[in-house]
Structures are given as C-alpha cells and as structure tokens.
Amino acid sequence: MPMNTPKQQADKVFRARRVITPTGEIAASVVVAAGRIIDIAPYDAVPDAGDVVEVPDDAALLPGLVDSHVHVNEPGRTEWEGFATATRAAAAGGVTTLIDMPLNSIPATVDVAALRAKRDVAAAQCSIDVGFWGGAVGSNLADMGELVRAGVFGFKAFLLPSGVDEFCHLDSAQLEDAVRAVAELDALLIVHAEDPHVIEAAPEPNGPGYADFLASRPAEAEIRAIANLIELAERYAARVHVLHLSAASALPMLAAARARGVRITAESCPHYLTLCAEEIPDGATEFKCCPPIRDRANQRELWNGLRDKIIDCIVSDHSPSTVALKRAGDGDFGKAWGGIAGLQVGLPAVWTAAPDWVDLTDMARWMATAPADLVGLETKGRIAIGADADLCVFAPDEEFVVDAARLRHRNPISAYHGRTLRGVVRSTWLRGEQITGDRPRGRLLQK
C-alpha cells in the first residue's frame, strides 16, 4: 500500500534504515512536502512521491545540525571569513542553520542599523539558513529592546576585553544592567564567562610555551565568572547561557543552580571535547582559543557533564582569522589570534572522540536539537513531523584525514589538520533540497 500522507502530496521521500529521531534510531521513510516533514512512515512503505532518496545502509539520516555559535565576520573582516565561505563550510559539515555572533564584523551588531547592514550583505550569499545574535555593550543597554523587535536571537556579552576594539566588554555594574534588561525583555543573554580580575592576576601569556598560555587563563576565571552569572540569573529570574565552557570544575555549581530552578544553560565545543593540552606542541598557535583547551582529565569531566545533562549542547565557536594573524609572533601565544576554525569538522571530530556510551541520538540532541531549542527554532534540528526537512546523510564508520587546504573555510589553517577523523558527511539537505553550492538557497531567520 502507498504510504499515507493525508495533509498534502509528498514531493520527496528519504528512506533509511537508520533515521535519528528525537526518541531514538529507527528504520523509516521520511516524507517531505514543500520543504517540511509531513510524515515518518515505515521503512518498507511504498513511496508515493516523485523523488525517492535512498540512504545507503552504511549511513544514517541525521537532522541538519544547528550551530548557534559562529563568527562569520562580514562585513568588515571578510578576509577572515564571509557568509559565502562560512555557509558552504557549514553545509559540508552537516550544518543547516547557524546563528552569527555580533563580533568580529565591522560594524558590530549592537544596533538595528548594524543588524540591517549585516543582513543586507548576507542576503544573497548563504547556502544554509542564518540568524543573528545582538551584542550587549555598555553603550546600548538601554536600547536592547529595539534589537529584540528587529529579530535577534539574544545578546552576546564579554566580561573582559573581546579582542576587537569595536565590541566593548561589560563591567560588573553593566553586566547586572544587562541581566536585568534581558529578564524584562524575556530575552537570552549569552556570556563569555571569564573573570577579568583572575585573568589580570595570572601570568602574561608571552612566548611559545603552551603550558604558559594555559596558566594565563586559569579555570578559576571561569568558575568565578559563572558563579556571578548564576547569582544574577537567580536574582532577576533571567535566562543566561554560558558560552564555550572549558573548565569542568564549574559543572557542580551549574548542576546545583539548575536543580533549584535557575534559568542557566551551558555549551561546550568540539575542540574542548576532542583536543587536550598534553598533545599541543609549543608554538602551535592554531590551537589557541579562550578559554583554553585544558588537560585530558578535564576533558573526561566535560563528557560526563554532557552525559549528566549539565552541558546542554555542542557548538563550534568557529572563530577564524587570516593565517598571518593566527601565526602572528611566529608561535608566540601572546601575540597570535585566539580562536579555532572548526565549523566544517565539528561533527566528525566529536564523533571520533566520543566515549563508548555515546550514540548518534546523543549527537543529534547535542548538535542539532538542543541548539535549536536554545534559540527557539522549533522547526529546526529534529526529524519530526512539522519540522523543516533539514537533513544530513552521515557515514559514521568512514574515515578521512583532515587537510586544512581542502576545507571550505576561507583560510587554510586548522587545529585538526592531519588528524584522522571518523564519520563523513555524504550530503546535506536544506528544506528537502540538496546543498550543492551552485546556488545559495539559505534564508535569513528572525526570532
């Protein structure tokens, strides 16, 4: 019998023996009409559709990933990364939706005019769907409501210098004002959580020694900043999100806060879950990021934080730059730009490093559903009836060696260069259409 699709006529069916749904892995036929999933039928149902995509038995059908932490940098620093290159790289890595950070573009996305400028330049370039964060800086705290009404997904804040002059950090009084403002707006504040006083008291990160750089960004900086965020979120009943959690020692306080109802969430990133300090050579500034990549024992505890649902999601913090900036100082960690460019390889990197208890349902939850839920995109990041048909065909057992020169990032430098990773993205689909790079079909999203 043909599969039953009573709501509207199907135009495409994806048949796979491994379909990763929010409730687990099943064999199924995912039925699509006008870019939306209208049915999830048995695998052996007879497709009643014009186009049938047969997923090979050695691959799984995952929801398209949602990456809520990407620095695209256009306009102003397009030579670091632009919307064309970033979204092509994202698609090659199985990502179908990204949310762009309000820095390091010029102007920074701290007012409606800057948001409009960013949307204008992105409009015809995106291979995937793109939304935007706003910035919370001292000068715009009274005007955050305008950005909310213009459609940003929330506000990014730094507690210490951001690395670029046009995006100012918040002092303690301004941070409290920002938390109060997002509570009143029912918005989300996402925070680079390192305490400036701890960093100022730490040794300067000069020279090629990775151990010296690591000492310059101690875990205590994250712990103290997160403790302050918890206190403010609790006081104002505000939604606060901890960006790029690196220090696993902060997990107990996050767990305790959430147990008593504090509205605080947290993310970590592929580089913290796959790379470790013991393996980073001196002078290898492609590994520099802030907060830093810590030791293997810390990494194990981050994985436990995911298992225990204290860390909600895994996102890239794709923070690219030119090769010259990344190599500035000829291996001096104090002078090189800090940031990992990993948008295209996040899924295989995490899958390669994952402990034995992790399955593809976990991966889809951490890298697709949870980031979509964080920003309120109910039709993204899940294979479910009513969701956008954003899909990724992923071969979990296939291996490849990362070659930075062949990645679709704008600049050929990668902390993963030369690594053998397990898991290959075979194809990526946006609203039921395969992303091939020939014609940008991504949409600009609003909250």
Task: Quickly list its features.
about 20% strand, 6-stranded parallel β-sheet, TIM Barrel, 13 helices, globular, alpha/beta, 4-stranded mixed β-sheet, 17 strands
* Helix/sheet category: alpha/beta
Proportion in β-strands: 15-25%
> Given this structure, which CATH class of the largest domain is correct?
Alpha Beta
CATH architecture of the largest domain: Alpha-Beta Barrel
Whole-number tally of structural domains: 2
CATH-defined superfamily of the largest domain: Metal-dependent hydrolases
Quick one: biggest sheet?
A: 6 strands, parallel
Give the CA-based shape: globular
The stretches of 5 or more residues where confidence is low (pLDDT under 50) are 1-6
Q: Helical content, roughly?
A: 25-40%
Number of helices: 13
Number of strands: 17
For the termini, the CA-CA separation is: 41 Å
Summarize the helix and strand pattern as letters: EEEEEEHEHEEHEHEHHHEHEHHEHHHEEE
Rg over alpha carbons: 21 Å
> What would the average pLDDT be, to the nearest integer?
96
Domain Amidohydrolase-related: 61-433
GO molecular function, one term: allantoinase activity
Subunit structure: Homotetramer.
Family: Belongs to the metallo-dependent hydrolases superfamily. DHOase family. Class I DHOase subfamily.
Written account of the structure:
InterPro entries: Allantoinase, Amidohydro-rel, DHOase/Allantoinase_Hydrolase, Dihydroorotase_CS, Metal-dep_hydrolase_composite, Metal_Hydrolase. Residues 61-433 form the Amidohydrolase-related domain. With 447 residues, the chain is of the alpha/beta class. It folds into 2 domains: 12-57, no CATH class; 64-376 and 398-419, TIM Barrel, CATH 3.20.20. The chain contains 13 helices and 17 strands. A 6-stranded parallel β-sheet has the order 9-10-11-12-13-14. Strands 3-2-1-4 form a 4-stranded mixed β-sheet. The longest helix has 18 residues, at 219-236.
